[in-house]
Design goal:
The chain is mostly helical and 306 residues long. The protein contains 15 helices and no strands.
Length: 306
Amino acid sequence: MLDTLTGFAVVGVAIALGWIIGRIDLLGPHARHVLGRLIFFVLSPFLLFTVLAQADATMLFSSLLPVSAIAAVAVIAVYALVARLWWRRPVGETLIGALAAGQVNSNNIGIPLSLYLLGSAAYPAPVVLMQLLVFTPISLSTLDAVTSDAVSFAKTLRRTATNPIIIGSLLGTLVSVFDISLPPIVTQPAQLIADAAVPVLLISYGISLHGQRVLGARGHRRDVVLASVLKLLAMPVIAWVVAEFVFGLSPHEVLIVVILAALPTAQNVFNYSQRYDVGESISRDTVFLTTVGCLPVLVLIMALLG
C-alpha cells in the first residue's frame, strides 16, 4: 500500500508544481496552449509508440481486452444517452464527458499502479491498445468534424490518418505484433522524448487548475458528477460482473480488469478538450475528482478481491 501511495504522491507533486507555475505566471499567458500542442503533437505520440512497442503481443490481445472494452462501452453509452437525449448537450461536450466516464488513465497512473498492485506493468497494455486504436480515432474524427467549419468525409479521414497520436499508436502496435527488433539509435531517442510526456502533461494539467474551482463551472456540475460516478463506481462493477459471470476469468484476472476499470479518467481526455476547445471544464474536473477518489476505491477492491 505504501508503494501505491507513493505512486499517487509522485503524480500529485507534478500537478502541484504545475499549479505553482500557473500561480506565479512563470511561463506567461500562452503556457497552456503551447504545452497542450507540444503534448498532443510530439510527446504523446512518442510515449504511446514506446509503450505499445515494448508490450507483449499476446498480452495485447488477451482475454482482458474484451472485458475492458465491454465495461468502457457500457459507461460511455450510459453517459451519452443521458447527456445527449436528456440534457441536450452538444455533440462535442457529450463526447468529452463520455470519454471522461469511460477512458482510463492507463499510462502515467495505470502502469505504475499495475506494477505496485498487480506485480507487472504489462497489464494495462490491452486497455492502451483499445483506447488508442479504437476510441481515439473515433473520438478525434468526431471532434474534428464538430469543430471544423467545413465538414467532409475525405477531410475528416485525412486528418484522422495523419493524427500523430494515432500514427504513434499504430506503429508501436505493429512493432509489437510483428516482433520487430529496433536498433538503439531508434529506441533510445524515442524513449528520451517519451519520458518527457507524463511530467509535462501533469504540469500542464496543474497549470490549468490555477484560478479554477472544482465543480465551479455553472451548468456542467451534473455532467462532472455523472462522469465521475460512472468512472469510479459503475465501470469497476460492470467489469467485475462481466469478468466473473460472462467470461469466467480466474480470480487474478478478475482482479486485474477491475483494478484497470477503477483507474481515474485519462488525462488525454483533458488534452483533447484543450486541443479542440470543447468541454474543458468537464474533463478537467472529472480528471481531478476521479484521481483523488480512485484511491479509496482501489483500496476497497484490493480488500475484496486481492
